[in-house]
Amino acid sequence: MTDYTKRASSLHQQHVYRNGPRITAVETLIPDDRFPGYVMLRLHTDATVDGEPVIGHGETYYIPHAVASMIHDWMARRLLGSDATAIESHWRFFYDRCTAFGVRGTEMRAISAMDVALWDILGQLTKLPIYKLLGGAVRDAIPVYNSSGGPSYGLLPKDAIDRQGWPGHGDLGKDGPLEDNWKSVNKPAELAEELLSLGYKCMKVWPFDRIYQEHGGHRVPWNDLIAAIKPLEKIREKVGMAIEISIDGHGFFSLPAAIRIAQALRDIKPMWLEDVIKPDSADTIAEFRDKAGVPIAVSEMLVSRDDYRQILVGRGADYIMADPTWVGGISETKRTAEFAQVFNVPTLMHDCTGPLTLLSGVHVTAAVPNVCYQESVRAHISTLYPHFIDEPPKIENGHIALPTRPGIGVKFLPELFTPEHAGYRISRL
Fold first, then answer.
1. What is the pLDDT of residue 399?
2. Nearest alpha carbon to residue 62 among 168, 141, 161, 196
3. pLDDT in tens, 256-267
């Protein structure tokens, strides 16, 4: 019998190799041809359930080649041969070791993908959806809002020099089905009516990206600001307060510009302003909230509990927003939401990337009373997710039903993971 404890980094870490089920392979895929910022992770185990192999699924987004290298060149040294159910032990080990050289960038995204995959394994082994392992349901269905990405959001034309693009520099899109970003500018009232007819009670728009791209983030000319707000006024004129409007600023603006934007939006009565100000300083964010006069959400761009602690202690947010595959997976997302609950500050789940990010947020939202909304991009659900998973989630009357399948609730299409794909990589025990 193989003594796997010899793989341990120290005597203290031998516990993670004493038992199974064991991780036998680590597999990643970067689908450059479909979604170039995306990295998909599968953790294979030696376990089976009802004759089917147990494989955990995880993901993250941004700088995918760095994340894949982090997983294979560094994290696989511990994962291979280890107990796949030692979720907290793996999380803490990687986080502690990463503090030696940063932890908040590539490292945390890699930890996030791993953590989601490990929870998926545990759910499959127990034949339970993850939210039941997190403490069980606190609601019957998950309320979602629609974020105004279109089918091409996150993509660029195949002949573009840079296929991946830059955060916040997405294409406005064009007129057509599910082109919600384009509609939010050019047909905002019609978009609001359409979303209301589908049961959505909240929509998120990005009206100030073009101001940043033209002028930078330090000044916002009044004429441009007035023009950017016109579509929001049309929504209010058409449907009144029947739908909530939230605003995403993609972290572009410094304090004076952010204050001007917030002041101009007061009559719109947004549900929240999100990342209108750069997330560099907790003190400045708190000053912004004090002067804004509208609710402030902070921030998918934060990637540690201490970031959120500074915001919460400094009274910088009316809402906390977390992205499960950036902040540390399901484990850290749940801890962050529960921490915010101490301050009576509700949590929002971010998703504008892959399907497992959405579903990770759904499981946390199902189990944590403090979470009030899950972001979704209906264009991604309809046009992108079917290329990656076997059962895209369904939104009915503005809600996603609680998952019923074990684990995360979906599987990556296995035919995608092929050595012939340029973005494929595998490490074996």
1. 98
2. 168
3. 999 999 999 999
Residue-wise pLDDT for 95-110, tens only, equals 999 999 888 899 999 9
- Which H or E element spans position 291? helix 282-292
Mean pLDDT (the chain) is 95
Beta-sheet strand order (sheet of 424-428): 52-61, 38-49, 23-29, 424-428
What is the C-alpha separation between 174 and 178, in angstroms, rounded?
10
- Tokens representing 401? 């039903």
Backbone angles phi, psi at 335, to 5 degrees: -65, -40
- Give 174's DSSP letter: -
Distance (Å, whole) CA 67 – CA 207 = 31
**pTM of the entire predicted model:** 0.97
Range of the domain at 216: 132-401
148 part of a folded domain: yes
Q: How many CB atoms lie within 10 A of CB 242?
A: 12
Query: Could you tell me the CATH number of the domain that includes residue 396?
Result: 3.20.20.120
**Residue 177, Cβ density class (10 Å: 0-12 exposed, 13-18 middle, ≥19 buried):** exposed
> Looking at residue 39, which CATH number applies to its domain?
3.30.390.10
Q: What is the CA radius of gyration of the chain?
A: 21
Q: Tell me which amino acid residue 308 is.
A: Y
